[in-house]
Amino acid sequence: MNGLEAFDARLNALIGNLSPAARKEMARTIAKRLRAGQQQNIKRQQAPDGTAFKPRKAPARKKKGRIKREMFVKLRTAKYMKAKGTADDAVVEFAGNVQRMARVHHYGLRDRPARGGKEVQYEARLLLGISKNDEAIIKEEIISYFYR
């Protein structure tokens, strides 16, 4: 057993000693911080690993003076991107009807952009994921929770 496994085992024991309500509060705080990071990634039009999203196939400017807004503006709002915490896990997910659209873009699936339209193959644009920075945020939040 190396040092990291021993640390992980002790950390799990510490978290296990917390009451379910305290674990839920900690998970909710972690989920909210992770959601904020995911929202910033989407705003910057980049995947969690820092690579840029593939650009749209259609031009952003069709008519003179008209510019389409950036991708996923509404998707990154708290109305659609939910942060939940339970005693066992912290979850950041898309809610409701946008979940299907987010899945299509995240995995690069085929979909119809409009009813009755022809199917289009979308580029894969990773919307959610855990980066090294997110791992650091999680560790920081857990450690700071024990020093409160």
Notes on the protein architecture:
With 148 residues, the chain is mainly alpha-helical. 43% of the residues lie in helices and 9% in strands. It has four helices and four strands. It has helices at 3-17, 20-43, 98-107, 132-146; strands spanning 81-85, 90-94, 110-111, 120-121. A two-stranded antiparallel ribbon has the order 1-2. Strand 3 (110-111) and strand 4 form a beta hairpin. Helix 2 packs antiparallel against helix 4 (132-146). The radius of gyration is 19 Å and the shape is elongated.
Observed structural traits:
148 residues, mainly alpha, two-stranded antiparallel sheet
Strand content: 5-15%
Q: Quickly count the helices.
A: 4
Distance between the termini: 30 Å
Biggest sheet strand order reads: 1-2
Shape: elongated
Order of helices and strands: HHEEHEEH
Alpha-beta content class: mainly alpha
How many whole angstroms does the radius of gyration measure? 19 Å
Average pLDDT rating = 85
- As a percent range, the share of helical residues equals 40-55%
Beta strand count: 4
Q: Which stretches of 5+ consecutive residues score pLDDT under 50?
A: none
The main β sheet shows up as: 2 strands, antiparallel
Organism: Erwinia aeris
Region (Disordered): 34-64
Biased composition (Basic residues): 54-64
InterPro entries: Phage_virion_morphogenesis
